[in-house]
Design goal:
This protein has 243 residues and is of the alpha+beta class. 24% of the residues lie in helices and 30% in strands. Helix 3 links the parallel strand 6 and strand 7.
């Protein structure tokens, strides 16, 4: 999404300095300061519960960003026509698609220690319908693919940029702060290893198939055999299934 040089206002500058101060306290590199929106009173997005804002590295280069936030719509009729979200440090564009169908989504939510009834803000940011005045506490979940460098270890702070464009072609830009979390990647890698170990054990005791038929019925059930067979291939969806 192209960026615009927008004329700053006194109120906007104060809000920007407050956001950047919170990011600085988290240890997030600030970099260049964006000019704030000329209409900050139409829609506001404030990051909350900073300790739970994470970038999770998953398997096969997939990443997920989770940011708790409060959205306030103060003017009726604002229509968000474009969204861009990315992690500048690793040049990673993200998508605000519906993550609820992803097998790793419950794992992401399990790590949020606030009210589980908190809403998914993606629904409002991508609804393509005019927004009514409201205040909603929720969480932003964005997904993408990135070659995460090895120096980004657990707890490394990162800045995430979010840009929204409305029907007037005005941009609202927000700096968010997250920390790297590798716990899910380690969990899924252990699960991969366990699947392969079980496959080797089953094959050593007689194999999954004998003459085209499933063998050793006492060692493995048909359902378990199918799951293990799938896990040994390229499809990692079974490995993301929550416990």
């Amino acid at each position: 999404m192209p960026k615009q040089n927008l004329k700053p206002t006194k109120t906007g500058n104060q809000e920007t300095r407050a956001r950047l101060l919170r990011l600085k306290e988290m240890g997030v590199p600030i970099g260049s300061v964006h000019h704030p929106s000329p209409e900050p009173d139409r829609l506001a997005l404030e990051q909350i519960d900073h300790d739970f804002a994470r970038m999770y590295e998953l398997l096969s280069g997939r990443v997920a960003v989770v940011v708790p936030a409060t959205m306030r719509v103060l003017t009726s009729g604002i229509l968000i026509t474009g969204v861009a979200i990315w992690i500048p440090r690793i040049d990673c564009p993200l998508e605000l698609s519906d993550p609820t169908g992803d097998t790793f989504y419950p794992d992401l939510m399990d790590r949020l220690l606030f009210d589980t009834r908190t809403k998914l803000l993606n629904d409002w940011l991508t609804s393509e319908v005019p927004l009514r005045p409201r205040q909603v506490k929720g969480v932003i979940v964005a997904e993408g693919w990135a070659d995460v460098p090895l120096e980004l270890q657990d707890g490394t702070p990162l800045r995430v940029e979010l840009a929204l464009r409305d029907q007037r072609r005005k941009e609202l830009r927000f700096d968010l702060g997250v920390r790297v979390n590798l716990s899910l990647k380690r969990k899924y890698e252990r699960r991969v290893q366990e699947h392969h170990e079980r496959l080797r054990l089953i094959r050593r005791e007689g194999g999954l198939f004998e003459g085209g038929q499933l063998g050793d019925q006492e060692s493995v059930s048909p359902e378990e055999a199918i799951n293990l067979r799938d896990a040994s291939g390229e499809d990692a969806r079974e490995l993301h299934k929550p416990n």
